[in-house]
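User: Second chain of the day. Same drill as before.
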Amino acid sequence: MDRLISLEPTNLVTIRIEPGQKCYGVLTLRNVMYTMPVAFRIQPMNKARYTVKPQLGIISPLSTLTVEIVYQLPVGSNLPDFFPHCDDSFLLHSVVVPGAAIKDAKSSFDEVSSDWFTTRKKQVFIDSGIKIMFVGSPVLVQLVVGGSMDEIREVLEWSDPAWNPVGSVDSNGQSLLHIAIAQSRPDIVQLLLEFQPDVESQSRFDSSPLEAAAAAGESLIVELLLARKANTERSEASTWGPIHLALGGGHLEVLKLLLLKGANVNALTKDGNTALHLAVEKRRKDCARLLLANGAEPDIRNARDGDTPVHVAAGLGDEQMVKLLLQKGANKDIRNKSGKTAYDVAAEYGHTRLFDALKLGDSLCVAARKGEMRTIQRLIENGAVINGKDQHGWTALHRASFKGKIEVVRMLIDKGIDIDAKDEDGYTALHCAVESGNTDVSELLVKKGADIEARTSKGVTPLQIAESFHYAGITRILIHGGATKDGNQNMKNMAPVASPYGSNGKMGREVTESMKRKKQQPRPRVMRSSFD
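Assistant: Same format as last time:
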């Protein structure tokens, strides 16, 4: 016989440490004798640190008794000197007491004599195998701060799940997840997630773990939290949501992950800004492109000033951002709460280089389309950039050529406009003049040195367009000017567009309106149209 008493479930006693609370654990003793009662005595080796209740007792055959072990923290500390394990131990004495009286299967302290354990008879057993493990919030917090992976797992596994050890917080209310995120420890986050913590728990700064990870740029941690269905939207108490925090820190990879998992690209901060507002404010063109590619609305006005992202970009004088927003369809004529357009804001701050993109460029294109030469002269004198493009990438020369305004075309060329400038689809002014059937303008452009072999982004030359529309006169002009028929076979393989829609899917209104005026039948194929 090796023992009279077994320890259940093991010889390890977990003592929970919590600030301001009694620190204790329990140990269950089982009498393994079938017919004999057994007396026991538990003695801590460090009597000043531990109290055992009851320290002595009698257990009836095959019965159990629960012992409470109370720990006294060192003065001025909320943690043991050593944790989670320590060298403290206990001695368990046990002896068979055949004639002992037992009341309700257990004996009181007074019924046990210490002399029973001092005899040197063989029936007295001594067991020193009782070990101590400290658990509790302060213990787990310190282990997470220290990065002790094995010990964190051990404490979580041995802790009573009834008190939710993975939900422990530090003295400032920070959860274990928040602490691991602050330590940049995705391995610890992954370990904690195995024990099902609340992934929406708020920190003392009113941020969720996902918001904290996004702000820190911890892409791997963000990915782990998203895999656990962490909410991608702004938590109620937070000022910014995950996508705003990622953008604020310039963490492009985190922003990609959030958008991939369905984060609302147009979500608002507490003060009513979108992520696109913030990208513009931070001058993060890469982030702005990503947001716009994922459906960001460029015309949302913020709550404070009613500014759209274009207003913000105009106020900063960020020409590239303004052009990007306009290219993606932003409306530059929206007025903020002060009644100002983006142009007004740019003018207020003296950002003259934005004037063309925000106002003068459009006015120049409109004047060119209408053939208003005096207006064109005045706009250029007032600072309009002659090679400026509208949001579709058309210059004034594109507009005038498409509308057949030959005098305007001549004037713009004389003033040095780029005769071969291309729009977003690769069309030059010559492509536009040919497609709209303007023979005189086409001839003038050829004489002025326009690139006859220029190709659109789909590889189409002016000659191919002229032949597809059966414009014999323009075809002769282009061939006389040096255009070759190389590549016409490519044109045969192109699918005809048997509708009055241009290549970008917008109605060619100018073409159809002119047809109505001339009472002509619509042309069978239209490859390009105006965007007015």
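Residues 487-532 have pLDDT under 50 and may be disordered.

User: Great, on to the next one.
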